[in-house]
Amino acid sequence: MPSHEETQQRIAELEHQVEELKNQLLQSQRLASVGQLSSSITHEFNNILTTVINYAKMGLRHKNDATREKSFDRILSAGQRAAKLTTGVLSYARAKGDRRDEIDLAEVVADVLILVEKDLQMNRVRLQTDILGNPVCEVNISHVQQVLMNMIVNARQAMADGGRLFLTVRVSEDGTMGEIVIRDTGAGIAADDMRKIFEPFFSTKKSDENGQGGTGLGLAFCREVIESHKGRLRVESTIGQGTTFTLKLPLAVSASGRKSA
Ligand SMILES: Nc1ncnc2c1ncn2[C@@H]1O[C@H](COP(=O)(O)OP(=O)(O)OP(=O)(O)O)[C@@H](O)[C@H]1O
Ligand SMILES: [Mg+2]
User: Fold this and answer.
1) What residue owns the CA closest to ligand 1's atom 9?
2) Rounded to two decimals, what is the model's pTM?
3) Contact in structure between 144 and 249 (CB atoms under 8 Å)
4) Which residues in 66-192 belong to E strands, given as ranges?
5) Per residue in 55-76, pLDDT tens?
6) Which residues line ligand 1 (CB under 6 A)?
7) 50: left (phi > 0), else alpha (psi -120 to 50), else beta?
8) Strand partners, 96
């Protein structure tokens, strides 16, 4: 029989292992979600390259200063757009450990949108973003980005024939929480499924030919991340009409005195 102390030590070891495995799973889920965007991001790169090539040709063909200047301008902004995308993908793929930083939630939303905008457009989803406040919260930025990414990808997948996605950032009415609302006009969630959607491995999605979609880990991670930030997560849904997820995160202590709204 192992002694009490040995048992305690073993438990501590196992807890540590579970923690490690969770982190690894979180990282692979993270990479899988960028993977889901690979086709739209490649597409966008192609468009950028076409712009660069065409304007370079135009600049070479036309010798007048005005046309050349316009060509350089277009090439520059296409290049900047490409740089923003690669920086976005690279920083998203690289998790930042357990660090927490004070950040404006509107900035987190903007960072994620750089990566998903094209994907939404390609799937005929019209996006409306309403920044009604600038709540500063102390968060693990990579984790909150991942939560948003999971939810936006879910929303898009629920709108197979296109639709509308509304993203809102605001401060809660009582002034204590930052809120991000993600509303789609998709298929909605059946009442029976509502209780299960946050369970790990619950998914109603069949995997496609690339084996993509439907690990059922997306929302389980969202819940975990929000709980670890002492936040709250609410979902409302009507079949055939759409779904609304509301994330609430406590405002940073130093931010509550500041102009957050
Ligand atoms: N916006 C939404 N509209 C309709 N159903 C949703 C929405 N978000 C989540 N769901 C439902 O909740 C289930 C669980 O979502 P979750 O993100 O955890 O897993 P998944 O999307 O199926 O797989 P993964 O995220 O691993 O690719 C989904 O299969 C879907 O049935
Ligand atoms: Mg998902």
Assistant:
1) 154
2) 0.86
3) yes
4) 101-104, 125-131, 136-139, 163-171, 177-184
5) 999 999 998 999 999 999 999 9
6) 150, 154-155, 158, 184, 186-189, 193, 197, 202-205, 213-220, 243
7) alpha
8) none
